[in-house]
Amino acid sequence: MKQEIIIAGFGGQGVLSMGKILAYSALFEGKEVTWMPAYGPEQRGGTANVTVIVSDERISSPILSEFDVAVILNQPSLDKFESSIKPGGTLIYDPNGISEPPKRKDITIYHIDAIGAATELDNIKAFNMIVLGGLLKVCPVVSDENVQKALRKTLPQRHHNLIPLNEEALRRGKEIVELD
Amino acid sequence: MEEKEILLMKGNEAVAHAAIRCGCDGYFGYPITPQSEVLETLSLEKPWETTGMVVLQAESEVASINMLYGGAATGKRVMTSSSSPGVALMQEGITYMAGAELPGLIVNVQRGGPGLGTIQPSQGDYFQSTRGGGNGDYNVIVLAPASVQEMADFVDLSFTLAFRYRTPVIMLSDGVIGQMMEKVVLPPFKPRRTDEEVRLECPWAVTGMRGRSKNIITSLELDPSAMEQHNLQLQKKYQTIRENEVRYEEFLTDDADYLIVAFGSASRIALKSIEICRQKGIRVGMLRPITLWPFPTARIAELAERVKGILSVEINAGQMVEDIRLAVEGRTPVNHYGRMGGIVPAPDEIVDAIEKMRK
Question: What is the tens place of the pLDDT at every residue in A32-53?
């Protein structure tokens, strides 16, 4: 089993750290994993993306032209990556700020109002964990238990008081992701 | 037995952890994207409090490499890291080290050039590394890691080779391998050598005379006949390295009709292309040079006898392809595929390049 995932959005949305939690979860799952950021001079407001590959076997290229799953968090990323999803693949997007929704008919499309849910939780920083919850609902590539372990690993000790909030966000994401 | 912990980290972080664990005595460097995590990780780990390893942010890359010269002259295991324009600045120091026969490790996490270029990945420094970027007749051993694991493993290997042959060693990495996170098992802890051990291993080093004759570390010799003798001795050493230290890895070359030659991150991308080609029924294999100098010339010449064509995949305009052509000597067609300026080729572009060779 191999899942080739791209997560793309604005810098500052937590795209890279979401990918990092996914990657650590895969590590605890005993899988092979690569995490490759499109690093650059990106800052808050610019675009950011990360490719995470989770596999049972040795991973060849950390850089891909096609993906099984795309998690899209803004219009420029949708424009860039909609055509890169493999036929039969999965697209998850947050419709906030999307003026031209996805058009592909040969993939499964989900939407998730993560910005709305984060506002309800009164914590916009929970946004990326809500999205990750949605991703794991439709693509259960790692177990909840290992995601919790990964949260503990990636959050600095001083922020461990935020773990319950993050877990709530993951749960919320699983509830609100729905088919387009 | 110590249980081997599997960690997830960036290639740059792996270099820093491996340096601390392999008994490195000193790191001197100056921050530059995409390798800044090396110095960052060392600063966070504070090895000066544990192993006694010195970590110093120099005022420039020129200062870093000359600190390496000084540390190496005393027989210490010393290293620096930088990215392409920073390594360009170091070339004078590297040729001085080659001339004075000093061991040391230079890690280059390449970015696009020429000039200040870009901060995205590239393999544009192949010529700089393998041809001797500085003046005079010299070579340095060049190792090309293709994974985070190799970023960790090659640090100790580099020091071993550097001291075995009294030569600088370059680890030629790039922004992909430096910035990506992958699983890694760090090497076991090895203590730094004691002063006595340094004196035994490096009788040439300036360690204080105490009962021996004077050691002089210099690359200057004004008597041309003595300088020629020195050059002849260096060339003899380089020949020994060519005979003993060629390293490479092969994938599916047994039945291959076409051979890809690629190193570092390009070899990882090419592996994916080979998976796609094989699904299409095109038998493609790969030779991945691990040492770029010395180059696996003899093995490529052998493989050239039985393939229909060779494709050099590099993230540059075509540099290693010259060494491949020298090895192949016209036995089979040799093409190049690459991207430049910080653009990394995608697997399907390489598949297209292979299909073009078949026409």
Answer: 999 999 876 656 667 899 999 9
Delimit the domains of chain B by residue range. Answer: 6-198, 249-358
Report whether CATH 1.10.1040.50 matches the domain A2-179: no
pLDDT of residue B3: 60
**Helix extents (H) in chain B:** 11-21, 37-45, 61-73, 84-89, 91-100, 126-130, 148-165, 175-179, 195-201, 224-244, 264-279, 297-304, 320-328, 347-358
Burial class (CB in 10 A: 0-12, 13-18, 19+), A42: middle
Give the whole-angstrom CA distance, residue B318 versus residue B315.
Answer: 8
pTM above 0.90, yes or no: yes
Q: Which of B242, B8, B217, B244 is nearest to B140 (CA)?
A: B242
Residue A161 has what DSSP assignment? Answer: G
**Which chain B residues have any C-beta within 8 angstroms of a chain A C-beta?**
6, 8, 33-34, 119-120, 175-176, 179-183, 265, 268-275, 344, 346-349
Predicted confidence (pLDDT) per residue in B106-140, tens digit: 999 999 999 999 999 999 999 999 998 999 999 99
| Fold of the domain built from segment(s) B6-198 | Rossmann fold (3.40.50)
Interior angle at CA B25, CA B162 and CA B74, nearest 5: 65
Question: Is A31 in the B-facing interface, judged by CB distances under 8 Å?
Answer: no
The percentage of residues in chain B with a pLDDT greater than 90, rounded to a whole number, is 97
Rounded to 5 degrees, what are φ and ψ at B54? -80, 135
CATH fold of B249-358 reads Rossmann fold (3.40.50)
Contact B74, B33 (CB under 8 A): no
Indicate the SS3 state at residue B343. Answer: coil
Residue A167 CB coordination number (10 Å)? 16
Buried b (16+ CB within 10 A) or exposed e, B12-25: bbbbbbbbbbbbbb
ipTM given for this complex: 0.93
pLDDT in tens, A61-83: 999 999 999 999 999 999 999 99
Q: How far is B295 from chain A (nearest CA, A)?
A: 23
Question: What is the rounded average pLDDT for all residues in chain B?
Answer: 97
Between A and B, how many CB-CB pairs are < 8 A? Answer: 68
Domain positions in chain A: 2-179
